[in-house]
Design a protein that fits this description.
The chain has 285 residues and is an alpha/beta fold. 45% of the residues lie in helices and 15% in strands. A 6-stranded parallel beta sheet has the order 2-1-3-4-5-6, sandwiched between helices. A two-stranded antiparallel sheet has the order 7-8. 43% of the residues are buried. The structure holds nicotinamide-adenine-dinucleotide (NAD). It comes from Segatella hominis.
Length: 285
């Protein structure tokens, strides 16, 4: 069921790679709700992924850009305004990558060139997007910018590695830029802290399946899937959230407020219950 929540609005969505991508679902949902959209990803992602299919489905132009390049971002904001026929109302930053995670470098053995890349791609690119948009005056008054983040920015999670540092910075940029952009142009900037989700980036995190299962058992509402996240993003882009800014908004089925759930505790106790091995010896988990 659609509600025309984004009727007449123009948006740019960064980071849809394939059908599993959260950004893909956001683009579909935003188009369903009446928005016109420009899609952006790296030239490499355009070759490796299936963005053409989405572009055709929702009739959206694709503008290739590396989100760490100010020049590329300028091109995206200028071309998107030309192709969509006016200033932009909403932007989604759904961009992340850690070469340290990819190359299995642990947090106590980081490669610092990789760390710089992680921070540039996953956090500083958000600042670059905002600075470019503001200098070009490309976003309408009361526009809405959202970036996707994860709770490992605030609490430690095994295997999240230097992405945790990048997400802390991303959330901080939303606050710092949110103050300036809100004060001067009434543009609102927020981060949505999403449940672990099975996507290409998600699958790169160590033991993501166990992490997803644990989060699901800990969350009273269960994990939020990508479609749920898309609905939340649409609401944040809509006029119903005009006074929400500089927030890190948890979208995680309640996970971030939990200490221990019965379901997670039962699972833990089951795994620790003593059992007999093939020789009848009692083993304590
Ligand atoms: N999957 C999860 O469990 C989860 C949970 C919380 C938050 N998030 C966040 O959601 C966002 C989207 O990730 P996803 O899970 O949909 O995975 P995804 O792999 O589909 O999306 C990541 C995107 O980042 C793009 N990207 C990488 N380097 C780039 C660059 N230099 N310039 C432009 N784009 C670049 C990739 O091409 C890809 O499209 C990320 O910020 C991720 O950290 C994911």
């Amino acid at each position: 069921m659609t509600h025309n929540l984004l009727k007449g609005k123009r948006g740019i969505i960064f980071g849809a790679l394939n059908e599993e991508s959260i950004a893909w679902k956001v683009a579909e949902k935003a188009a369903e709700e009446g928005a016109t959209i420009a899609l952006s990803n790296t030239a490499m992602a355009l070759r490796m992924g299936t963005l053409d299919k989405l572009a055709e489905q929702i009739n959206a132009p694709i503008i290739a850009a590396d989100a760490t390049s100010v020049e590329d971002l300028e091109k995206v904001f200028i071309e998107a305004q030309e192709k969509l026929g006016g200033k932009i109302d909403f932007v989604l930053h759904s961009v992340a990558m850690s070469p340290n995670v990819r190359k299995h470098r642990t947090y106590d053995d980081l490669d610092y060139n990789f760390l710089n890349k992680t921070l540039d791609i996953s956090a500083i690119s958000f600042h670059k997007m905002l600075q470019v948009a503001k200098k070009l005056d490309a976003i309408n008054e009361w526009g809405s910018v959202v970036a996707l983040t994860y709770v490992a920015s605030q609490r430690t999670f095994f295997g999240y590695n230097d992405m945790a540092d990048a997400k802390s910075m991303l959330e901080s940029i939303a606050r710092s830029f949110g103050y300036i952009y809100g004060r001067e142009k009434h543009v609102r900037i927020n981060t949505i802290s999403q449940s672990p989700t099975a996507t290409t980036a998600g699958k790169g995190i160590k033991d993501i399946e166990n992490m997803m299962d644990f989060a699901d058992k800990m969350s009273p509402l269960g994990n939020a899937v990508a479609e749920d996240c898309a609905n939340y993003c649409v609401m944040m882009f809509s006029d119903f959230t005009r006074k929400v800014t500089m927030q890190n908004l948890f979208h995680d089925g309640g996970f971030s407020s939990m200490g221990m759930s019965l379901r997670a505790m039962n699972q833990y106790a089951k795994d620790l219950a003593p059992y007999e091995d093939e020789n009848g010896k009692v083993i304590y988990g």
